[in-house]
Design brief:
binds nicotinamide-adenine-dinucleotide, single chain, alpha/beta, Dihydrodipicolinate Reductase, domain 2, six-stranded parallel sheet, Rossmann fold, nine-stranded mixed sheet, 2 domains, 354 residues
C-alpha cells in the first residue's frame, strides 16, 4: 500500500507518543508538522526526520501533497484545525476528547459530512484487546438487552497540570480528559444509544484546595490551585431513548481508593470489564465465565493500531474506524453533565442534527 502522507498539527506530548508509535509503520509517511510554538515544530521535525515545519497550520494545509492530518492540539483547539483541514481536502485523525464543547463537536461532524472526508477520533482504547473481547461477547447477544450500566474513570490523586487545567486550552477537566474513555467504553458496548436526560453533579473542590502531597507529581506541566479553571469531579445519571440508564463517574482526585469499575446488567447476563467476566444463571446455577486468553492492553501498541486503522481506511475508502457521529454523543453527555451540574437539576439533552 502506498503510504498516506500525514501532517501533524500540535507537537506536544501526545504528538510525540504517536510519532514514536508509528516510527516503523510502512503505511504512513509523516511529511510536515505545525505548532504555534515554532521551536517545538522545528525540534519535532529534526527529531523524527520530518521534512517541513510550520508555525501556522493554515500555511501547511496549502501543501497539496498532504493527504491527512493528525490534530494533536489541546481540546479548545480541536475544532478550527479539524474543520479547516477537512475543507482543505485532508482526512483527519483528531485526539480525544473530540472537542471541548458540544457546539465544536457538531461543527466538526458537519464538516466531515460536507466534505466527504474521513474524520476519526483517536480513542486508542477502542483497539485494546480487552475492549475487542468485551465487544465480541456483547455483539454475540450474550447479555440480551442492557438495561443498566456504570462506567468509571477515577484517579485518587491525579490532577494534571499545564494545558490540561486551563479553561482556555482544555475547556473541560476530568469529564473530557479521562471521562471520555470510560464513556466511550460504555456507549460502544451499549451500541451508542441516544441520551435523552442527564442529572449530574460536578465540582473542583479537592484540586482547588490542594496542598502538596509527598510523592505526588502533576504530569503535563505546572499546577497550582489558582490556575485550575476546570472540574476535577463529575457524576451523571443518564437516561437513553431505549429506556437504559448509565451512571458515569469520573474524577482526578478523591478521598477514596476506588469508585468501582465499568459493568453492564443485561436481561440474559451481566458483564464486568476488569477482570473480564460474564455473570449468568446457567444450567440452573450461578455461572461466571472469565475468558483466559485476552492479551494485555499496551497504549503504545494501540496508538500504532489506531494510526494503521486510519491509514487503511483512507486507502480502502472504508468508513471511519472511530466515527464522529458516535463521539459526538460523548460530547452531548459531557455537556449535559456540566450544564445539569450548573443548574442543580436534571436536564433534557439531544443529539444535534448534523
Ligand atoms: N490519546 C492519549 O492517550 C492522550 C494522552 C494525552 C493527551 N491526549 C489529548 O491530546 C491533546 C493534546 O494533549 P498534549 O498532552 O499533547 O497537550 P500539549 O499541551 O502538550 O500539546 C498541545 C500542543 O498543541 C499546540 N497548539 C495549540 N493550538 C495550536 C494551533 N492552533 N496550531 C498549532 N499548534 C497548536 C500547542 O502549542 C502545544 O504544543 C489533548 O486533546 C489531550 O486530551 C491524548
Amino acid at each position: 500500500m502506498k503510504p498516506v502522507k500525514l501532517a501533524y498539527i500540535g507537537a506536544g506530548g501526545i504528538a510525540q507518543s504517536h510519532l514514536r508509535a508509528i516510527s516503523d509503520v510502512d503505511e504512513i509517511e509523516v511529511v510536515a508538522v505545525a505548532d504555534l510554538i515554532r521551536e517545538r515544530a522545528e525540534e519535532t521535525a529534526a527529531q523524527w526526520g520530518i521534512p517541513h515545519a510550520y508555525q501556522d497550520y493554515r500555511e501547511m494545509l496549502a501543501n497539496e501533497d498532504i493527504e491527512a492530518v493528525s490534530v494533536c492540539t489541546y481540546n479548545q483547539a480541536h475544532r478550527a484545525p479539524t474543520v479547516d483541514a477537512l475543507h482543505a481536502g485532508k482526512h483527519v485523525l483528531v485526539e480525544k476528547p473530540m472537542a471541548a464543547t458540544l457546539e465544536d463537536a457538531a461543527a466538526m461532524t458537519q464538516a466531515a459530512h460536507e466534505t466527504g472526508k474521513l474524520l476519526m477520533v483517536a480513542v486508542w482504547t477502542r483497539f485494546s484487546p480487552l475492549r475487542q473481547a468485551a465487544k465480541a461477547i456483547v455483539d454475540a447477544g450474550t447479555l440480551g438487552d442492557i438495561y443498566y450500566a456504570e462506567t468509571v474513570a477515577a484517579r485518587r490523586c491525579g490532577t494534571p497540570g499545564g494545558t490540561f487545567i486551563l479553561k482556555e486550552t482544555a475547556g473541560l477537566g476530568t469529564t473530557a480528559d479521562i471521562g471520555v474513555y470510560c464513556l466511550d467504553e460504555a456507549l460502544h458496548l451499549m451500541g451508542y444509544p441516544r441520551p435523552v436526560t442527564v442529572s449530574a453533579i460536578s465540582n473542583n473542590l479537592l484540586s482547588k484546595s490542594y496542598k502538596p502531597l509527598l510523592g505526588v507529581r502533576h504530569w503535563g506541566g505546572e499546577f497550582s490551585p489558582e490556575l485550575l479553571g476546570v472540574e476535577d469531579f463529575g457524576v451523571a445519571f443518564v437516561r437513553f431513548e431505549n429506556g437504559a440508564v448509565l451512571v458515569f463517574k469520573t474524577c482526578w482526585c478523591m478521598h477514596m481508593d476506588s469508585l468501582g469499575d465499568t459493568f453492564f446488567l443485561g436481561t440474559n447476563a451481566g458483564l464486568k470489564l476488569r477482570p473480564l467476566t460474564v455473570y449468568r444463571h446457567q444450567w440452573s446455577m450461578l455461572t461466571d465465565t472469565a475468558p483466559q486468553s485476552v492479551p494485555p492492553t499496551d497504549p503504545q501498541v494501540q496508538f500504532r493500531q489506531e494510526n494503521v486503522a486510519f491509514a487503511r481506511a483512507i486507502r480502502d475508502g472504508t468508513p471511519s474506524p472511530v466515527p464522529p457521529e458516535e463521539l459526538l454523543i460523548t460530547n452531548v453527555i459531557i455537556q449535559g453533565l456540566i450544564d445539569s451540574a450548573a443548574l442543580g437539576r436534571e436536564i433534557e439533552v439531544s443529539v444535534p442534527d448534523v
